[in-house]
Amino acid sequence: MDPASQALAQHLPLNVCRTYAALADHSDGRQYLTPLEEKAFVQHILQTATLRFPLRIKDIPALAFSIARQRSATKVIKPLNKN
Fold first, then answer.
1. How many whole angstroms separate alpha carbon 30 and alpha carbon 36?
2. How far apart are CA 33 and CA 68, in angstroms?
3. Is residue 82 part of a domain?
4. So what's the pLDDT on residue 18?
5. What domain of life does the native source organism fall in (predicted)?
6. What total of structural domains would you count in the chain?
7. Is 15 a residue whose pLDDT tops 80?
8. Residue-wise over 13-27: b if at least 16 C-beta within 10 A, else e?
9. Per-residue confidence band for 20, with pLDDT thresholds at 50, 70 and 90
């Protein structure tokens, strides 16, 4: 068995939670977009899909990062909430 398969077959340590709530709590601090930006981005994805030009899944994180990068440096953004 190769090393990658051995690593996947091992159990997680006892102190690591595998519940959906634990994963959601972990992802709260890693959100790129504000709720308004996320809503507009979803609308853009759906609109391009209806025009028969769907976005590839692998392009979505890069586009989200480029949206977040274009924010104004002087405008204060409120803390992110759950999306």
1. 16
2. 6
3. no
4. 66
5. Eukaryota
6. 1
7. no
8. eeeeeeeeeeeeeee
9. low
Per-residue confidence (pLDDT) for residue 70, from 0 to 100: 85
Residue type, 37: E
Is the pLDDT at 42 greater than 80? The verdict is yes
Q: Distance between CA 70 and CA 1 in Å, rounded?
A: 46
Query: Is residue 25 included in any domain, yes or no?
Result: yes
Determine the Cα–Cα distance for residues 59 and 35; give it in Å rounded to an integer. Answer: 20
- Residue 48 lies in domain: 3-69
Q: Taking all residues of the chain, what is their mean pLDDT, rounded to a whole number?
A: 78
Phi, psi dihedral angles at 30 (to 5 degrees): -115, 25
* Residue 24, both tokens: 């959601």
Q: How many CB atoms lie within 10 A of CB 37?
A: 19
